[in-house]
């Protein structure tokens, strides 16, 4: 019993002591570009583009990993992040990168763990899955046999 209490206390301290998420939907773009995901995924800016049509008034910022395998698009409206989109190989071994992305995007380790269940289902079953957590929607869409899109919105 004493050991269990100690582990609960350690878990609580780690949870409360962890830094806040850096780039949730609704935060300024600068929070994303200066946040940990840029380094964790080795992302480099690849440019920006004003969107038109139904998406007018928004700007898409593209970031690509150093190895060229992962692409992250950040859709910004009025200086604030509206959507975070990640494109990566449809492979369960990419779960580590997806987990980091989700944790940063929804601001929660628990949310990221729940999102990982939907990620694995999309990879294994080859169909779209989604999950809502704390007002965020995490959508996992296989684009073809090789690629998967992860979309985070509010």
Summarize the structure.
This protein has 154 residues and is an alpha+beta fold. The protein has 5 helices and 7 strands, in the order αααββββααβββ. The protein is globular and about 35 Å long.
Strand count, sense and closure of the main sheet? 7 strands, antiparallel
N-to-C span:
41 Å
Strand order of the largest sheet: 1-2-3-4-7-6-5
Q: Report the structural category.
A: alpha+beta
Mean pLDDT: 87
Give the number of domains.
Answer: 1
The total strand number stands at: 7
Secondary-structure element string: HHHEEEEHHEEE
Number of helices: 5
Which range does the strand content fall in? 25-35%
Helical fraction equals 25-40%
Low-pLDDT segments, ≥5 res: 6-18
- Note the overall shape: globular
Radius of gyration: 16 Å
Structure description:
This protein is 36% helix and 34% strand. The chain has five helices and seven strands. The chain is α+β, with helices and mostly antiparallel strands and 154 residues long. The model is unreliable at 6-18 (pLDDT under 50). Strands 1-2-3-4-7-6-5 form a seven-stranded antiparallel sheet.
List keywords for this structure.
154 residues; alpha+beta; seven-stranded antiparallel β-sheet; 5 helices; 36% helix
């Amino acid at each position: 019993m004493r050991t269990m209490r100690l582990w609960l206390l350690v878990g609580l301290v780690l949870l409360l002591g962890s830094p806040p998420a850096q780039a949730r939907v609704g935060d300024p773009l600068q929070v994303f570009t200066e946040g940990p995901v840029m380094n964790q995924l080795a992302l480099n800016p690849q440019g920006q583009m004003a969107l038109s049509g139904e998406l007018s008034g928004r700007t898409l910022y593209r970031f690509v990993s150093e190895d060229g395998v992962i692409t992250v698009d950040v859709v910004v409206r009025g200086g604030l992040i509206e959507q975070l989109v990640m494109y990566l190989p449809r492979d369960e071994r990419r779960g580590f990168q997806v987990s980091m992305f989700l944790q940063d995007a929804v601001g929660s380790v628990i949310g990221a763990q729940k999102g990982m269940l939907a990620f694995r289902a999309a990879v294994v079953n080859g169909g779209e899955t989604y999950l809502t957590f704390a007002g965020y929607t995490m959508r996992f869409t296989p684009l073809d046999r090789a690629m998967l899109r992860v979309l985070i919105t509010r």
